[in-house]
Prior knowledge:
The chain is α+β, with helices and mostly antiparallel strands. The chain has three domains: 10-106, no CATH class; 142-171, no CATH class; 182-338, Catalase core domain (Catalase HpII,  Chain A, domain 1), CATH 2.40.180.10. 17% of the residues lie in helices and 12% in strands. The chain has a four-stranded antiparallel β-sheet with strand order 1-2-3-4, with no helix packed on it. β5 and β6 (335-338) form a beta hairpin. Bound molecules: protoporphyrin IX containing FE (HEM). Protoporphyrin IX containing FE binds at residues 174-177, 180, 214, 216, 233-235, 248-250, 255, 257, 260, 263, 322-323.
Amino acid sequence: MAKRKTNGGAVDGAGSVLSTIAGPAEPAHPTRLGPPNQIAEQLLTKVVTDQALAAGMPFNPTKPLEYGEAAYTPHEGDTESPASDWATASTSTESVASPKVGDGRPDIGGNPLDGPLDRVRVDDSGRELTTNQGVPVADNQHSLKIGLRGPTAMEDFILREKITHFDHERIPERVVHARGSAAHGYFESYNDLCAITRAAPFSAAGKRTPVFVRFSTVAGERGSADTVRDVRGFATKFYTDEGNWDLVANNIPVFFIQDAMKFPDLVHAVKPEPHHAMPQASSAHDTFWDFASLSPEIFHMLMWHTSDRAIPRSYRMMQGFGVHTFRLVNAKGESVFCKFH
Ligand code: HEM
């Protein structure tokens, strides 16, 4: 069974301390970040002393001395001392020792990037170059040619692998559901459902199947906001006794279109306007309403989409709907239709 990672549950205010997009809404800091943990305490010290350092100089008192007559006799400038070295640390894990980063004693005032690169050099002598499959390669700078000045031979699998790898180095972003977050957990069957299905997760009451659930927004790209008005995805991977089983769901029980043929048009319409890239990740714009106004089948979905359901409080506060009708088959080969809602 999947083991849930935990940091001891929610600690009020901790999220805003760790936030990288805005300062805390409440000026008060939490007094702890979960159960006792040295790195978390250092992080808290860092954040608190960091902000105290910034608050110590709300404006630059010597700025006026940079202008006019006063500028002829340069002034040293005011300074503020941090209450702790952690305030100026680059990370809260600077004191963690490892073969790569050293003994964990920060060099206060020093910048390792100014020094020689020997600390990160690796000695590869004695190790041969290989293809991706591990075949030793003597030379990956010259392709196989027919004769002295002849054409390149397509038999040169090392050349083909190198170029194929190069051509595929950039993996494009998913067209939809690009932004997501996921969690491990388990699915527990309340009842023995053998009468209607022979699928392993439903074979006994109380049977637990490990799952990995990926929640997502749909329209926005990977850097977009989580707070937009949009459908939310709910994709579950069940690690069943018989292999992996994927079930996709949305948090709305119906869908925009009834024919996959329209999907590229729907997605093109909902993506940002091409000339100003607005709106990001949301759907309140002309191209989307143009498409919607010409698709009568979309209106049921729009009623859901313009309700509060499309701005859920969090991924924890939403439901999952498989939308499609599925067929369940039991050990005797008898089938029934079902919806996973
Ligand atoms: C015409 C119908 C649909 C088409 C053509 C379609 C197409 C797609 C495509 C192309 C992706 C991106 C896959 C990737 O790049 O990894 C995707 C992802 C997804 N779709 Fe659909 N979709 C359709 C309907 C639905 C419906 C009805 C649901 C809800 C039951 C749904 C739920 C999802 C989810 C949750 C994901 C993200 C999966 C993940 O997190 O890995 N889609 N879909």
